[in-house]
Amino acid sequence: MYAGRRRRDPAPGLTPEDGHATNVGSVTVIATESLSKRYPRVTALDRLSLDIGPGVTGLVGANGAGKSTLIKILLGLSPATEGSAAVLGLDVHTHGSAIRERVGYMPEHDCLPPDVSATEFVVHMARMSGLPPTAARERTADTLRHVGLYEERYRPIGGYSTGMKQRVKLAQALVHDPQLVLLDEPTNGLDPVGRDEMLGLIRRVYTDFGISVLVTSHLLGELERTCDHVVVVDGGKLLRSSSTSDFTQTTTTLAVEVTDSDTHPDGTAALRKALTEAGLTLHAGEEQGLPGAGHILLVEATGEHTYDTIRDTVAELGIGLVRMEQRRHHIAEVFRDNDQPAYTAQPKGAGSHGA
Question: DSSP 3-state assignment of 327?
């Protein structure tokens, strides 16, 4: 499946009319129109309208925002109360089986059998997807190599760490070479290093192999590093759908990071005092800088002279300049500025698991 393969051109498939999927590279991958899902006491989705193209798309919202409910509807596993949805050009109401043949799904919760190996499980899932035995074994080996489990592939899953189990779930979603994968909270339970590695794997799914990705998370910071497009939902309603570059557009603020020196043990504080005396405007608060450096000062840039003043001041103080660059918005700040929820919640496990 993956060995020696570069990013592919998505293969043509069935249309709703004749059972063939549309070309992923030229059409909307996921589309919903006024999609609602109501239960007796709660509305999980409320007239949600989306238009998602190829690439890596992040679906972000707090626990209970409706992310998992949407995925179940897109897979044809749960009927919508009203509205419509299509995946790869196929109507979810009438072509659920055809969608599931062409889509990989990584569930949020741990659902792996503990007494079988990763190879046995992924081969089984490949066979369930319709692959013949030889192809299933070959693709399983390639997929486990891709997710970094090749050396551990024969160990029982019950002895795996949380990160390894998440990689098995990703592998089974990819083994049948889908056109789209739906990943529900793939970084759930991972430590910072594990999250970074998983996000790197997710990005490669599209950049290396041309498989579009819809990934859910309740952590905005994860998605802005990984996704081309971000969709934000809250209480089942759409708050915003924009490209990541629109969310994180550059500001007129400069991020300045310096080192300490023998003369100035706190280089950041010395620079803040000197720049203020020089008449520059500094924003309140600081951001954490690189290990071994210091904090980042946020300086309002009013013209080219701002750069010259900072450079000359750093030189006069005798401290090291780590970086001076235009700062970009973080996605969470967009929502703080608009008095909307900023999904920077603690990692899963601190709260309840919602829909």
Answer: strand
